[in-house]
Amino acid sequence: MGRSCKSIRRDLADCLLHSDCMFIHGKSAQECMKNKEQLPVECRNLMTSFGECKRQMLDMTKRYRIAPEKDESSETSNQPSQEAK
After folding, report:
1. Where are the domains of the chain?
2. How far apart are CA 9 and CA 62, in angstroms?
3. pTM of the full predicted structure?
4. N or C: lower Cβ tally within 10 Å for the chain?
């Protein structure tokens, strides 16, 4: 698992431990995750984020994609100068 997913996983585990499902009803984390309607919205959102994070780690189309760099010199050279007018 990538480093980026570890923080989400830790937050999800903390949320599950403090939820009524585990804390009051004494169910396991797996049982609580199967019955999502018993969990608070925060835990459900963290579950979704964690799943998306794991999927992105496996998505080969986005793994090596690098954003193109802006070339500042070409932007300034394409603009007409004020002196020519």
Report:
1. 3-60
2. 21
3. 0.63
4. C
